Amino acid sequence: MKNMVIKNGILISMVLMLLLASASAASAHDVAVSRTISPTTVTAGESFDVSLEITVTGPITSEQNSSYATVKEYYTAVDDMENWIISDVSAQTPFDGAFKNGNNNDTGLFEFSTGGGALYYMTLASGGSGTFYINYTMTSSASAGAGVHSISGYYTDADFSSTGTAGYTVDVTGDSEVTLLAPVDPPTYIDDTMSLQDVINASESGDTIMMAAGTYVLPADLYINKSDLTFMANGGEVIITPDASLSDIDIHLGLELGSVGGSTDVGCDASGTTFNGITFDRINKLGEQYTYIDNIDVSDERLEDCTFINTSVNLAHNAVMKNCVLDSSSESVYIYGDNVLMEGNIGSCRQIKGGTYSLSSTTTTPCSDFTMKNNDLSFKYLNYRTGSCLIEDNNITTSSYISLYDNVSNIIRDNTFSSSYTYMKLEGQVYENDLIYTGTSTTAYVQFYENGTYYLNNIGHPTVKLELATYSTPEPVTYTYAGVGQTSYLGNYYSNYTGADTDHNGISDENVTDSTNGGVDEYPLMGAWSADANSIGTSTTVLYEDTVELGSDMTCTFVPYDNTGTEYDIAPLSAMAALMATGLDMKTSDCWYSSMDSFFVESIEGYDTPSDWSKYWEFRVNGAATSYGIGSSTFDNVSDGDVVSLVYVDAASGSDEYSVVITVDVTEKDDFLYYGAVDLVTDDTYTLTLQDDEYTVDSLSALGALFETGLEFKMNDDDYVNSSSFYLESIEDIKDPTETCYWAFYVNGAYTSYGIGHVTDDVVTDGDTVSFILTDWDSYDEYDEVHIHVNQVDTPVLVQRDIANQNFYEELLTQYGLTSTKVTVTLTAREDIDSLALEEVIPEGWTLTSSNDDEGVFKANLTDDTRYEWVWTDKMTEGDSRTIEYILTLPSDEDSGEYPVDGTASVFVGDDDINDIPVVGDDMVYVSATDWNPWNDIDSDGSKYITTDELQAAISCWLNDLPAPTTGDDITTNRLQLLVHYWVQNKECPEGADA
User: Fold this and answer.
1) Is residue 785 part of a domain?
2) What are the tens digits of pLDDT across the range 11-43?
3) Number of helices (H) and strands (E), helices first, in the chain?
4) Distance (Å, whole) CA 169 – CA 162
């Protein structure tokens, strides 16, 4: 066998040698080099950083000193790149061996080499591959021309031979260009002791003039005759103003010194003039009106963050006026060119006027593409005619008129125009504007011109002139009216129009027609349009607007307020069920149910139907009045997404005064771990027992709702001291399936900021929906869900039952004859009541022996031996209580199982007979075949207390995997911990306690 091993080893060695020989015949490695430049755009004379990443894959086989590797970078293209300067070179081994700065020979070549053999040993050490970096900084020449400069480079090594020829190269990939910007001259700094005209005369086109804070007084007109000059405030307020003795001082753009601003002047290039952060005070005119003067160029003027006090401004081609303040009640802004932008300006002036500019002293042409947006301005006139414009998102107040017409290409949208006088004339695509009239004139009007499109405008003027045009949205719009979703073409809202809306969709049944001018709005709105809410407004006061969850598996019953002895089963997917789910305070009668198969909603939230029916509650589904009544067993059916409305209508006017709007969300119970409603009795409590402590839980809480579902759940109080709440570990033994999940806790669909059972915040009320959703906190995926609808039960009397011993074991029943337990029922009046009765229902075959009737009359039912009654005939005032006690006895041979103890109370309060008041508290007795714990039996050493000897016996069973004596049950770790807990606390270990 050893010989065979040796032979195999020799064979393997030979194969390896052949493989190595084969590898030496041709290179087995590959190389890639990538270049990263940051930044790729700099000003000539500035620096940029370069990083080269060299990735070697596969071993380099040559071991000779000639097995160098080299990366070469070339900066030789144009504009003296060979004179650029390299610095801060850092390279990772083995490329730190040699660096040759080609600039010494003005070649523009920069070479990085490993030196002899270094790369071979490096790749050998790294298992046949490696990634290496070379970093350097390159400084461009200040004299280099602006533009794009290319960089090239390649890699080679003595062994690299992808073509079979040693010394083959591979190009560097990645960034290969640097953009150089022309150097910018340094700004000129001035102060208010210097002459602005002298500074301009001495400047060059493109200069930036930084103005120190101060007041720059003009002794005469100021001439800006250079292009691209920028005047910028250099901290503090900069004011340009005439000498106090002068008036009508102008700032001329594009005119030579001494010109007077007339049409015969000779112009020059002042394009690109910029003022930033400057205040102009009492300047007669900034800019030129006659833009056709020979050689004049005043385009691209930019006014930003400036203030204009009693100063007029002329804006020519491509001018921008942005974020400025106007304080010039007697001066104006004039538009004399194309592509003018006014944006973000505030304040007031006399007018904004434009629409045409001069081509000569005798001819004009319309402006194009004037944009006015996001301004908050007030003035006497807005007069822009003939030229095309985009007017949007402005808040404009005028004391006279707005004229934006004579061009059907205009777009006027999303503005608030407020006028106190005369008219607004608009043309083009005009939509979603608020046109507000604040004056008292009965002749003020809005005029929409022919061929335009006008819709979703809210018009407040007393008169509207509609020329022959389109007065509706281009396509049907999905919107909301009175809480109900609708889809239709929509027109405009006219504040002085009162039409009928019989189908309740927010669109009048009658057209708005201008017989004089020919225009017709076929879809006039009943209320103002809200673009934000995508809705038509209504004067109706909304009492309730929310979504309720319904499911076909839910049980829904209804008791009329005026016939409490009758209960109706309500279809779970019905408008009646939706109304009941809101929890609103209402009075609903069955007075006409027998004849009309529906109920009469007499009152909601205190709004009653008077006897003369001058006001009444109308029932609608999806905005339309129904032909049947609410709760109809035949017709009242709703589906997911339906909107149920109850509307309080004034019969005389037909107007809707109040409304209840309910959106139906149908969610089937089968989709969830639990979906249903629970009754939570006010002032009832539950006991939460955790390993170390017991907590009292109020019934009107999310935790109380979870208790009432009967679902099995586990939680801990590990962080109760800090959070005052519990951590929900599992429901129905369902817990984290991915180790990144938790039971998220919601009330009415909103994620809570507090934990379940929080001592002060966990409070629910009638109509609330409590949800627990198993959620992945990384992906937000949702798994099992529990949804609990809360019905708050406020009864005239609180009835609470306490069962002393709820757990029985067969051995206690048979061996010790322990078959009885004491039951206590306490009845506490929440208000004054005239009489009180209680009925208890026990399991069949069991017996009840009354031991304390508390002055009541006790009676066993003679026809049903499971029912027992107590009656009190004396009155009780609020806070009074009655307590009865009885002994409940089980048959000694009772089978294992769960046995309910039920009960109800009834009272008379005044003339009202109120029945079926639930008994809360303990309601179950458990019988088990065995009791795992022999150490808390009444005949054990410490009876219900765990003694030290008993604990040691339990530990021995646990250590040796032995069954418990007598019961034969396993002693698990959790059970042992339970015994330790009661031993340490020196508390009684109750029957049935398990872990």
Assistant:
1) yes
2) 333 323 333 333 333 345 678 899 999 999 998
3) 10, 83
4) 9
